[in-house]
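**Sequence, structure tokens**
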Amino acid sequence: MRLKHLSARTEKAYVAWIRRYVRHCRLRHPETCGAAEVRSFLQSLVIDRGLSASSQNQALAALQFLYREVLDKSLGRLPDFARAKRPPRVPNVLEPEDVAAVIAQLSGLPRLVMMLMYGAGLRLEEALTLRVRDVDVRRRVLTVRGGKGNRDRRTMLPETLVEALSAQLLRVRAEHLRDVRRGGGYVRLPYAHERKMPDAVRDWRWSWLVPATRVYVERSTRRRFRHHLHPSTVQRAITAAGLRSGINKRVSAHTMRHSFANQLLRAGYDIRTVQELLGHADASTTMRYLHAMERSTGVRSPLDLLPGLPSAISLD
């Protein structure tokens, strides 16, 4: 998986599914198992454990990777199995007034991250892994590197955030210089950059835009590293802000990205433009947001057509 540069989250998920598969096979080596065992495992996920279609599909992808890339063994055509259906879902989107209400309940770095997700259509992981060098305030451009599918893309930097991001860049630089004076200031670099550019590990341009509050010490080298803000910190903050705002919708980090796409389509931007900004490989993924564009179905309810019924109904 690392040879193919799969993401750390994919690696973690695949390893977990393969472990569950081995346990399902009663600790037999996967090489001694085959399509029948894979079919039995995938069916048990739905029938016995009640998992969703997406979980079953992810487990299937992990096992196909195991047999194809690791064991160099073809599973062939899998026998028919109880496959969970994935029904179409309408993305959960917020109106601009609701987004403003949630933002008003946030402060500090979680507020900045949420505004980046809503203002630039970023995924949570993409917003957290922005580095100083990825922010071009003058050109109003953000560069997302190694996004989903390991693809790079550019998106807009909201005019509203220019001042806040400029101040954040200064704070990051000052914090980095303090870390360096204390013997730290190290940052993780992607792939082999640390070996090819040894000085870059303490270059502030490689620092995270939203750094964590604490540093950690690497056991082997005793170097003091500072990671980016943990995703759970932002997720919990946004969920709590949604509750405090009194909105009757579920508010999560990914809701901001859905709302970003919805607002662009309402403003008349074409699907291709929105697809590029979101980083979707397939336009059909972007098309889902068309279903959430309208405020209602456009059909008038029969209840509204009843003669003599007042417009406001009291339940008392």
